[in-house]
Amino acid sequence: MRLKITHTTRYHYDAPVAYALQRLRLVPLEGPAQDVKKWELDIEGATQEVRFIDQFGNDTRLVSVSGEPHMISVEARGEIETRDTAGVIGHHRGFAPLWLFLRQTGLTEPGQGTNKLLDAMPEKKDVAWLHELVSRIRGRVAYEVGTTDAATSAEEALSHGKGVCQDHAHIFLAAARAAGIPARYVSGYLLIDGQTDQVASHAWVEGHVDGLGWVGFDVSNGISPDERYVKIAVGRDYRDAMPISGIRLGAANERLEVRITVEQ
Fold first, then answer.
1. Angle (CA) 58 231 219, round 5°
2. Which of 51, 76, 93, 122 is 20 to 30 Å from 132 at the Cα level?
3. Is pLDDT at 194 greater than 90 in this prediction?
4. Domains along the chain?
């Protein structure tokens, strides 16, 4: 399937910005499930300082801002050819060793909620085990927008019983790692039937299975990624893979606009 994606982020300020540094992860990854046919990244109101591949294999840019103008625009757009691999990505590659994805983070640190989720799970930790974990998370945490935020941890989302795709991903990571299975967070885009405009990017996970390598799971939708998915970045949690992050100095008030379109 050929997917066309446009992701526009605009920051509006009511005064000059003393200084800001933004990290962009907005260039899709090449891999067994997708080929990047064309991709452009346009930046207005900021200066690209450096481009590099980070420890997780993500195309990363650092851009700086100081003084005028009062608007910064970042637009990523292009076309991706995707394939349905039943979620199977294959053997581990990259700078980061596999054991790094067994390490918990502040967003995935397990507790009582994770332990209860793992109670009575089968002993054999294979693909079926991971699908069962997905089913249990969906049974415990309903998808509901506005109940959590970017700083919500896996345990907090389990306690609320509500969350979004980011929360579902963090809970999966917490449980899989607690069971000794390497797991990583994935950020990207999802083609939704009958809906071109989207309010946010999507998040899912990959677990590492002996003999298969990395296998993807979209916990929120209860499936493995197919040709409707485009992977942008991976990491230990949301903070490692978020599309845009950074710091800003000064007293200017900020207004954010985000527009994402995904279409065939």
1. 120
2. 93
3. no
4. 2-82+244-263 (2.60.40.2250), 88-241 (3.10.620.30)
